[in-house]
Structure formats: C-alpha cells, structure tokens
Fold this protein.
Amino acid sequence: MSKYSTQEMVLNMGPHHPSTHGVLRFILQTDGEMMVKATPDIGFLHRGIEKIAERVTWQGFMPYTDRIDYVASVNCNLGYAVAVERLAGVAVPEKAEYLRVIAAELSRIASHFIGFGALLLDLGAVTPFVHALRERETFNDLIEMLCGARLTHNYVRIGGVAQDLPPGFAEKCRAFVDHLEYEFVEEFNELISFNTILINRLANVGVISAETANDYTLTGPNLRASGVAFDLRKDESYSIYDRFDFDIPVGRGKYGTLGDSYDRYFIRIEEVVQSCRIIRQALDRLPQDGEIRTKLPKLFTVPAGEIYVRTECPRGELGFYVISDGKKNPFRIKIRTGSFSSMTIIEHISQGVMVADLVAIIGSLDVVAPEIDR
Amino acid sequence: MYSAADQIYKNIEPALSGYGVPDMVITLLAYAVPCGAVIGIVSMIAGMLTYLERKISADIQNRVGPNRVGPWGLLQFPVDGVKLLLKEDIIPDAADKKLFKLAPYLVYSSTVLASLVIPFGGSFVVADLNIGLIFIIVVSSLLVVGFLMSGWASNNKWALLGGIRSAAQIISYEIPTALSLLTVVLIAGTFSLQEIVMAQGPWPWQWFLFHNPFTVVAFIIFFISGLAEMNRTPFDFPEAESELVSGYNVEYSGMRFALFFAAEFSSIFITAALAAAVFLGGGNIGRDPYASGLGWQLVMVAVFFAKAAPLCLLTIWVRWTLPRLRIDQMMAMCWKYFVPISFACLVLTAAWMLLFDGNGIFWRMAKL
Amino acid sequence: MNAVAEYFRNIADAVTTTIAGMKITLRYWVKEPSITVEYPDRLGPGKTAADVVADRFRGFLRLDLDKCIGCMQCMRACPINCIRITVEKTAEIRMLTRFDVNQAKCMYCGLCVEECPSNALVFSKRFEGACFNMQELCVRHVTGPVPVAKLAAVSTK
C-alpha cells in the first residue's frame, strides 16, 4: 500500500482570493478538503504609516490614521487624537466630545456591517451582504453630510472635531438608528442569523476559549465573544463614554460552544444595537452651543514625553504609543491594532478544519488587511 | 413511442425523394431539425434565465440590475454571449489540452441530451423514449465526467478541488433524485415522460404531486436534489466562489466558459421542466396531444411553460436567500435525510397503491 | 428517542428558517424599490453630478485669487506637499507667481482649507477627475503674477 501513499497538497490562498479581505495570503497544507495547517503570510499592505508619522506634523498625521483601518476611520482618528491630547494636555470642548462619540459610534456600526456582511458573503449569502451595505450607504450619506467624505473621513482633530453638525443631520441620524435598532436588525436576524444553514456553518467552528483568547491577546468583539466582558469604553473609559448607558454584549454559546464563530458573528449584530443606544443618548444630550475645537497655537508642539493610549476600535484595541521630543512632529509612533492579534490566532485554531471553515474563521475574526500591516 | 424525427421524415420524404435526394440525407435532416430546434430553444431559455437571475437578484437587493442594453436591459444576454465569443480563448500551458478542450462540450451535451426527452406539451417532444426517465438520469450523470475532466485538465489545485467536489456531490444526489422520480413511476407504471404526462390531468387534484402525501415529499426532495445536481446555492460547492475562487471552471475563458455557464442555466430549466412534466401534469389539458389541432397543441405548450417558469423563478429565489452549506454537511444531508426519506416515500407509495387500489387522495374528484 | 426527535426537529428548523428568509426576500423582490443612484447619466431631470453630493463635499480645491493673501499656511498644513506656492516681493507689492495644487496627489483631507485665514481656498463639488495624463491634474491656479490681497480687506472666518 505504501506505493499509494498520499501527500499533502500545498495551496496558496491569496494574495488575491475572494475571501481574504484585502491583500492577505495563507499558505495552506491540505489533505483534500481537510486542512493540516494554515500559515498566514502578511506584509502585502505595509505602507510604513508609522514611519510617515515621523515627518509630518502632529495635525498632519490625522489623515494617515484614516488609512490604518479605512472601514472605521473615525475610530482611528479618535484614538490618535486622544493620545496626543493626553500627552499635550489639550482640553476638548464638551460639544466636540459628543460629536466625536456620535461619529465614532456611527463608524463602528458601519464597520460591523462590513464585518459580518463580508462573512456572510464568504459563506455564499449575497443578499444579506448587500442589505448590510445598503444600510452602510445611509451611514455614508450621513458622514458625507457631516464631514464631506464618504470613506476616509478625517473628522476628528487634535482638540476637537472638524465641523459642527449640519442642519438636518440630527433628525436623519435619529431616523437611521431607530430604523437599525427597531427594524433592520430584527429583519436581518430573521433573514440570515437564525437560518439553520448559517448556524451549521458557524456554530462550533473555530472555537476560541477565554484562555486562548487571552494568550493570543485577542481584543474587542473577538475577545468578548469568548465570554470575557472587557470593553475599553467601559473598563478604561476615554472621551465621555462613561456618561452613556450601554451594555457589553458577550458571547453566550447560543448554538454551539462558547467562543465559536457564531458568537463572533452575532456579537457584532448586538454591538450595532448598543451603538444605536449610545448615539441616541448622545444626540439627546448634545449641547446646542459651544466651541467644537480648542484653538491650538499655529506651531503646535507636544511637550517631550511618551504615552500609550488604547481605545476601542471595531476590530479590537487600537493602541497609540506616542513619543514626543518637543518638536513639531512626532518622534515615534507605534500603532497596535486588533486585526494583528486576530491574525496570529488563525494558525492555532485552523488545525484540522475544512477549507470552507477557514473562510468562515477569517470572516468571523473580521480581519482587515491594512490594519494588520499598517 | 413517438418521435418527432419520424413524423418529419414521413412528411418530407415523398417531396424530397422526388428530387433524387438520398435517403440518408433525408434521415439526417429529419433528425437535425428537431434537435437543432431544441438546442436553440433551451439555449434561448438559458439566456433568458441569466437575465432573470440578474434582474431578480437586483430586485431582492434594492439594485437596478442590467438596464443599459435594450429596453430594461433585455438584450444583455445576447450581448454577453457575443462578448464571450470574441474573448481570447486561453488554454494554460500546463493543462492537459485535449481534455481541457473536450470538457465543456461534455458538460453542455449532457444538458442538451436531457432536453431531448422533455415533453414540451402537445406533440412537441423530440423523442418520447419508453425509458425517458432513466435516460435523463443517466445523461445527467455525464455532467460529472465533464466537471471532473475540466477540474483535472486545468492543472489547477482549486479547479481540482472543485471537480472532486462536484463528483462527490452529483453522484450522491443522483440517488434521491432517482428515488423520488421512481415514486411517480410506481403510480404511472411507465418510464415514458409523455405517458406520465398523459396519465395525469389538467386539474391540480389530478397531478401526481397531490396523488398521495408521499409524492408531495418526493417532489420537494426532487426539487432540492435538483438544486444540488445543477450546482446551485445552497449547494454550489464545485464553484464556491469564496472558497475555491471559481472551482472547476477557474481556468476557462471565452466561449468555453460560456458553455459551462449555458449548461448551468439550461439545467435549471431542464430540472424545472422535468418537475413540471412528472409532478405537475406537464402540458396536459385533458386532450389527446397527437389528435389535437395546432391551436390546442400551442395551448398545451403554454400550459407547460406556465408550470415550468415558476419553478425556475423559485430556483433563482432560493439562491438569493440562502447561504452555502459545507461539503460534509451537504453529504450528511443527502445520506442522512434525503436518501432515507425518499426510500420511505417509495415504499409508502407502494403500500398506498396496494391499500387503495392505485387511487389517489382526490380519486373521487379525479374521476369526474 | 431523543435522536429521532432531534432528526425531525432539524428538518422542521431547516424548513421554517428557510421559509422565513424567503418571505423577506420575496418582499424585497416585489415591493422594495431600488436605491441605486444611476450615475452619471440618469441622475434625474436637470441634475448634475454636483447635485448628488453633500454640501460639505470635499472635491477639487478651488482658489479665489481675490482673497488669497499669500500666507502659505495651506502649503505648510498639507501633509503630502501637494500645494506649491511662490510669492515674489517687488518693491512694495507682493506678487503671487505660482499656486499649483497637484490634485492627483491630494488626499482631500481638508487640513489646508481649515488653515486658510481668508477663505480663499475652498473645496468645490467637482470630483470627476478622469484624464489621459496625470499632469492634467496638476491645477495651476495662477498663470501670471497676481498681487496678493490684504488680510484686512477680505472677510475672515
């Protein structure tokens, strides 16, 4: 029989493959449909953002933070702004904080739409993906009204935000979150979330226990799906998140094991609802008058020193380690992103699954390629 | 046994032999005309289905769909066909060239062959074989050879995986398909499709679908297995776009790709047509198809298409609702659910035939 | 017995959830209208591309030469140096001899527009920049020497 011994097939999944979001490459060792090992190969989208930071001004680095995770630009803007403000001791006006929260939570909703929408697309369900993108379209219109761009928003500034709410924004935004919370999520769940085929595809696939998640420094929704109720908005509150009343959704293992792909999928839908709650509260309490931006000196410098600030991005913890030597540009900026740790765990949990499951795992971890490489 | 070729031969033979045309040419002509007509009609319908699929998916997803070529984009599919014809035909260097070229024709011919025995209503059937159902089942298995061949010959790992998947899938789902068709054969007592149609009636209670509760189940199983056999979502493993990039046809381009595509959409129609003929009474309007005039025959054709079209739409509708299964779940679904249930349907229908002397639930109404 | 119950429950689940999903898709199929904006040729009667974007849209940069005071704040604010300005001083009067914006490089971040003290540099709604040569996207706002405005003469923010 040794004459007919089989050998493992090495498959290159990527860098251009429909289900590796962005430019990502996996080297798969497969035994037919079963996978022996999946090794991620990253670096295709390295743009040297951290190095660029060293030659642009403090304010001038803001547009580059858009490009860290272009699906959730405002959240990245916010993380950088909070880091620089804490280091420089810049106070942020009350109204600007509310505007930041509204924009960041809208951005989180839009990012989650891409997140689970793309997962569903990878699983062959095209209609729910397009429905999610249709709702994202409303978000795009809103953010275009607010700051003039649909993709790389560059809305937050050091010491405030770029622009005040345009007329009609509050009503439109309220209608949008009401539609999401009361109509869309229910319909979407009925259309796809509770579908038996989807549950079969996601439940018990790619199970990450709480310990493993901690070992691989998973953060954000992926960590919470493993049952750890850790959300930086609550546990290490930045901006004004401590003033809002919202819950931290955690994985429950509804249809399978705690921390499986279904938990990671469903937690994002639940977070959309929580973000809607935050936006509604923020719109209610938004001060009518007041500054939206602290006046900074023409040549803005940050006192020498260093700081690490982490914020809750839709893909997990977004940490900015900022060193200043007192000049007009940063001395060094190190960015820590959620997708990078999500990426490292794929090799661990993809042993012995099928090729189709790997697609589900990548999708459920909501990896965005530019965020891995920066 | 009825054959359109025979009829044509009888009609044209006296006229043509007068001009000294050899008998063999007349015979070939008599066969070529209905075959060409069926290929043309089925390809036309396949083209319309591609248009419908794009339009319906657009409607479901709040989009517009094709709307630039012709009114409502109706001319999109001929334009696409022309475009594919003009595309460069790429054959990879490392491919097994002969098999690579042969595979699309095998796949396409299997669907076209199946359409030869479909009764389109009235006397419009190319050949009413007395083993019609078996012929369809046998011929549709030819699809596997084509898929496997294209997957192997492409010399591409994704294509190979797709080819192997399709082999596993189509061979497995042949069994529930055949078994659910057999329940009807039990009732009708014949394999000939035309006779199966004639054994039913124009009214719903005379259809084999409502003959007894088990035929309803058999119809559902036939329809779902049909989805699996023609590689439609939720069973589109061989070409699972997000997993295998494009599966067995990943290396194909131009007209060869178009043949795969046409075969896929033709088989949607053929499965729907088969279901309409076997379970829904086909083009039966209560008249003898061979003795009626042309007007009545056209009514029968209209009735047949009116039954087949909703099934085609249902196929498209299902695709744009459901996600894809995983390959092992698909196999489990076949062997754990469909095969036992279709066996049970077969046995229970046989028991029903014995118990009620061959009458259906609505037999009193059916006798009227 | 449990296994048998589960077997039939699985079938029931699959059927009911599929029907629930198909009901929703049917509703969209027959009822819900398309939300697609058919850019560029079917935007609606009398509408142009500029009408479909928001008021604050960040399109091509537009320079009002009557207002420009030649302070070069925009040039300094630009993170990617896509603005080039030259101001020449002759005797008493300062002349603007060059104001180039490389729209091909521009990332439309809006930092220059915010810095402009006299509102001379603003965003237009134009976004259709397709051209055959990259050089065409380098917009030269100043063709000949232009005297710069005085800050006091123009309305400030």
Summary: Chain A is about 45% helix and 15% strand. The CA atoms of residues 313 and 353 of chain A lie 29 Å apart.
